[in-house]
Amino acid sequence: MNIEVRKARAGDETRMAEIQVAAWRRAYSGIMSPALLDALDVNQKTDMWRNALERAGKGSYIVAEVKGRVEGFAVFGPARDKDLDGSETAEIVSINIDPDKWGYGLGRSLLNSMIEQLSTDGFGSIYLWVVEQNERAIRLYQRNGFVREGSIKTDPKHSAIQELRLVRNMA
Question: Does the predicted model carry a pTM greater than 0.90?
Fold first, then answer.
């Protein structure tokens, strides 16, 4: 499968929203409450992504295309966690792949692109948060050099799901 990773741009927001809603509904079925997953709204997410792309700020937004169609996206930038130095540590905020394209290498392509960019930008390490029960994502991250760091957080807006912090050193 020929995967092209590029910077996200205006016009990608609807597809990003569709992917996020579909990915969350598939990945978190049985983990997050059905009411929360059913309430996910493509129109609301489209507005959210449109606004995010317009004000990119310190974050970076990339998409993975297959045959000219966006099939996945990622968001990354300097660390937001207060216990980490954002000038030395980067954060992968989000990776979402169309569930129909899981297992085709899009996640790995997005990760490789982010790692390359963050290394070029001089970051010494990268971290991300992953839902503890999201074993598929954890395997992807571990295969790409991320390890459990030990920190755990609970996000009450997502049904009190626990998230693990995984880290990858760039050296």
Answer: yes
